[in-house]
Amino acid sequence: MEAGVPSARSRALAVLRVRSRALAVGLLPAALAVVLVAARMTGRLAGEPWPAVTLVVCLVAAVVLLVGGIFAAVVLRASPAVTPTVPLSEAAAPDLYRLVRDLADRMDVPPPSAIALTPDCDSWLEDRTHAAHRRSAISAGPESEQGAAPVLVIGSPFLWWMRVAELRAVLAPVVAGTGPSAHPDIADARGFVRGLDAAVDVGSRRGLGWIAAPARLLLRLCRTDATEMERGVAAAASERAQGVDYGLRIVAQEQVGLAYAGWDRLLTRVALPAWRMGRWPAHLDAGVVSALTELSRRDRLAEGFTSRLGERPACDLLEQPGVVDEATSLLAARLFHGGPAEPGPDWSPVDWTAYPEEVVDRKWRAEAARLHAALDALAVPAGRPAGPAGPNASTGPAGPAGPGALPGSVLPGSSSAAASSASSGSSGSSGATGPAGAAAAAGPATIEATGSAPPTVDGFAGPTLERVLGYLTDPVGEGTAGEALAGRLSGDLAREERAAGAAQPSAGKARGADAVPLFPLQPPRSGRDLLADHVTAMVCCAAVDSAGAAPGLDWLDGPVLLVAGDRRSDLAPRVLCLVEDGNPEPLRDWLADLGVRPEKPVRLV
Questions:
Q1: Cβ(499)–Cβ(332) under 8 Å?
Q2: Strands, E, within 257-309: which ranges?
Q3: Whole-number Cα distances in Å, 563 to 209, 230, 321
């Protein structure tokens, strides 16, 4: 017997004693009522005040039994939390099931009842035998049967990055945990704790404090013992797995740390911008291989790790890796971003080859359009009407914005664009004032409506980078122009996100509690960060339109600007110098070196 098993069992018995004491407290009034009634019937408690005392005790006992019965029913019937995963049937991964069963046989423990994947760098066992799971049809497989072994949940990045032998070494101590989990006392204690946790959730969501409060009290009473029980189980599982690929497990643990670092960068830098655009990368797990290979190349501590890529990857244990990858990628978007559970017109997959054009370029154009819309709103003089549609008007000679217009953008040729161009021209942002400056903001919409090209500035028409450079003449601070623009961008973006959520009521209803991300990747962005992102997007759009640059994808940093096929990483400090210090000269020098003309119009769609 492993050293941790006796400790885990003793802690499990301590948890069960908490349950027994709670049951005794609930039955105490009823026991007292039985004693009083029996004494009254035998004549031992005759006379006053015993009839009244007996009646009161019986009433209290009935109320306590009723409340205790309802509480016990909630604890027994409430569905414990189940981690959202992608189920993996044996037909979809026969080799993986054989590997796991071989591990269980070597360690003489019950094999897991099923295997599931999670878009995270972790692996664990999860019990899904609660009766509520069968009633709600959460699981119809063998894992939901009474007494079934736990489900083995594997982090999907492990399958794509690790080799078969490494995965086997990493899973050995996890699979070994099915042995202690089969012990009746440990299983009973775990079920009691999960039931209390589910009761707290039910009481909190439905406003039933008389259910949530005692459940929290019981959880506090058994918290220490439950924690030590799990530590004992983990120690026993680790000891049992000592003889299975122990030497290789040390090397595999290094890959776990590397996988976590690369996976985090891939989600926050690459996937998150796509999710915010209404697109979800369909093969995140395949992308993690490229990200981790790049990380290995950059990190001198990881030298030599790429040589192992010649060995058989663990994803070869799956029959259809691409299908599984797509399912886990969609689940990742749901967990970390709050996206819909199913693809739709506004929530479509994107392949890595199309990522630069369909995500990076669209992201830059949308942010550039939002930046100019904010400038339009701020450029309207006080007391002067901005037109029938307000400062964010998207109409002009060509009529309302068509389906190709981006949210928050202003169509070229709109009345607000002309007004802002005229007013910003007086401050030196466009170099023209009056009719010429107003016409400089006109574009294809005006040409289509009037049949002739409008007057231009220096031969060009449309929104320009010069307008942005001329406006940000002081650092971001309270009461400054930069702070006003940052606040306007924050408000516009918040309104767009609320409108997008309201436009999909059916999707929000279908997602239910998952309408918000369960595990958000990043805190809300500050106004300064938003302003820097939007200025960077405007500069990148100008570089693409006038200097032959192109949008690109870096596996660790996400959207990047490519010039002659090489990544330009020197743009960020110059944008920060403009945004934070109000100094446009470093950025102007960078633009001049690249051959970008700030006065040339930028395409926003």
A1: no
A2: 279-281
A3: 62, 54, 35
